[in-house]
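Shipment paperwork, digital attachment
Item: protein structure file
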Amino acid sequence: MSEAYRPAGDGETEPDNDRTTIHDRTTIHDRTTIHDRTTIHDQTATAVPAAPPRVTAGGGRVRMSSAQRREQLIAIGRRIFAEKGLDATSVEEVAARAKVSKPVVYEHFGGKEGLYAVVVDREVRSLLDRITTALTGGHPRELLEQAALALLDYIEEETDGFRILVRDSPVGSATGNFSSVLNDVAHQVEHILAREFKTRGYDGKLAELYSQALVGMVALTGRWWLEVRKPRREVVAAHLVNLAWNGLSHLDPKPALTTRKK
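Attachment content:
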């Protein structure tokens, strides 16, 4: 179900403590790399904050608008998916935390899979936007530093989002997972390496292989750092760049194995 669909209203009366902080504050940019391959699109320009509920003359609280309710459910779903994953999450729990009935969740998203697809799609584009925006340096070493720090910043500041991205996506999803982000970043790195390889006389066809290796190294280290959080992110990024850059600086144009010779 496309996120462009929005029901007219949820028909719920708000309880006294029905306030949810909206985590998704991402401005949506039209990027071909993601949108051309994404099955579920979040077409909202910006997340709609939950305005303070109005109080009626009798002391009751007026229900949220459809857009506000939708954002509330997305924020709640994001937290639960990060805690439990898709399989262990239920519509009942989402509805209970939002203090609405289950039909409200179904009305907005069709089920937990639809909610999950929207949450993941937002996180994919948020992380990709961070990384592509960070790549401002012209020197390859600076680009390595910026990419590594952008990923580590995201892990530290949006831990729930990263936990969701590194889990498996729904069956049949063409994108919307951590793999799609890595592929997009690797594609950008490939072009950078291709230029460097050309100036150094290396085989430009191998740029794709090296870009996958570099991005994979940073991504796996990021998953490890998600749990340990030591050392601090700047130190982790510095060591990643140290390994990657010094390795790239001393590439053997024609490497060969020493343990398995023909």
